[in-house]
Write a structure and sequence with these properties.
Helix content: 40-55%
Structural class: mainly alpha
CATH topology of the largest domain: Serine Threonine Protein Phosphatase 5, Tetratricopeptide repeat
CATH superfamily of the largest domain: Tetratricopeptide repeat domain
CATH architecture of the largest domain: Alpha Horseshoe
Strand content: under 5%
Order of helices and strands: EHHHHHEHHHHHH
Radius of gyration: 22 Å
Largest sheet: 2 strands, antiparallel
CATH class of the largest domain: Mainly Alpha
Strand order of the largest sheet: 1-2
Number of strands: 2
Number of helices: 11
Number of domains: 2
């Protein structure tokens, strides 16, 4: 279990070296003609592991997309290597690969460009797919066992596994009727545990886009994050207003949104402290039924900023 306090994180440069070194370490060292100069003034030989990456004429989006792709490839190759050693009876090396996989989950992966990390396709949940349903149940299991709905503590590794399950649904089963649910919980994890507010908002908005009748309080959660964490009051106001029209199944959220709209529309009170946010319903992290959203309370922590 991890205490929810500030932790020392690896720098973006450290992440880059950790992720890319295993991918390029088997390549020949660069010559003096091809070695890139260090940004910090150190000798180019100190950056030999990354000198094979050519950034001439490459924009930020391309680099971020490539980084995300290589992160996934690195993990997939470790899984393949682990399976290879198991199949060939080399248990010691299989354990080494397993430990490296476990350690990889602890590495903080920064979202350098939100648009490159959050799927931008226009999808519509239209099919019940058994494999996606199984992934969704697994994701909920890791989310709950990781501490969702329990104040102060959570298990970071389990949250990362849950996030991976939900992202796999969106990536591999884009027609599944669980993609909006998965997007909502991706937003919850980024908001509550990774402090990645921009990415959280993008996932909440995707949940609404992919299914306007999603049973989750995605509009309210996006509004709260925009209001209190990102201080984009105009965007928050629009979403609070949509809660009153399109997301009326959670009465405490509706009541809060109505009072907050009054504050935001009053220039003399726009920056004032908003009414107390609805309390989370601890221990109710399962998704509400699509057939009974008008009577069902939302999952745990849906009322938290």
């Amino acid at each position: 279990m991890t205490r929810r306090t500030d932790r020392t994180l690896l720098s973006p440069f450290s992440i880059f070296v950790v992720v890319f070194s295993p991918l390029v370490g088997c390549q020949s060292p660069p010559t003096s003609e091809t070695a890139s100069p260090s940004m910090s003034g150190r000798p180019a030989s100190g950056l030999a592991a990354t000198s094979a990456v050519d950034i001439v004429g490459v924009n930020e989006a391309d680099l971020v997309e490539a980084t995300a792709m290589h992160r996934q490839a690195y993990r997939q190759h470790l899984i393949a290597l682990h399976g290879y050693y198991l199949n060939h009876g080399n248990t010691e090396k299989a354990r080494q690969a397993e430990r490296e996989l476990r350690d990889l989950r602890k590495v903080k992966q920064y979202r350098f460009l939100t648009e490159a990390e959050v799927p931008q396709r226009s999808l519509r949940p239209s099919q019940s797919i058994a494999a996606a349903d199984a992934l969704y149940e697994d994701g909920l299991h890791y989310l709950k066992s990781g501490g969702h709905g329990i104040p102060l503590y959570y298990d970071e590794n389990k949250m990362k596994i849950a996030l991976e399950k939900f992202q796999t649904i969106i990536r591999d089963y884009p027609m599944s009727d669980k993609i909006d649910d998965a997007a909502f919980y991706c937003g919850e994890i980024h908001k509550e545990y990774f402090n990645d507010n921009n990415t959280a908002v993008q996932f909440y908005l995707k949940a609404i886009e992919w299914d306007p009748n999603t049973p989750h309080s995605a509009r309210f959660q996006a509004a709260v994050v925009l209001d209190y964490r990102l201080h984009d009051r105009d965007a928050a106001l629009e979403l609070y207003q949509r809660v009153l029209k399109e997301e009326t199944f959670e009465k405490t959220n509706v009541s809060f949104s109505r009072r907050r709209i009054g504050q935001l529309l009053d220039p003399t009170r726009r920056g004032s402290v908003a009414p107390t946010l609805p309390e989370p319903l601890v221990g109710t992290s399962a998704a509400p039924s699509r057939a009974s959203t008008a009577q069902t309370t939302p999952p745990a922590e849906e009322g938290r900023p």
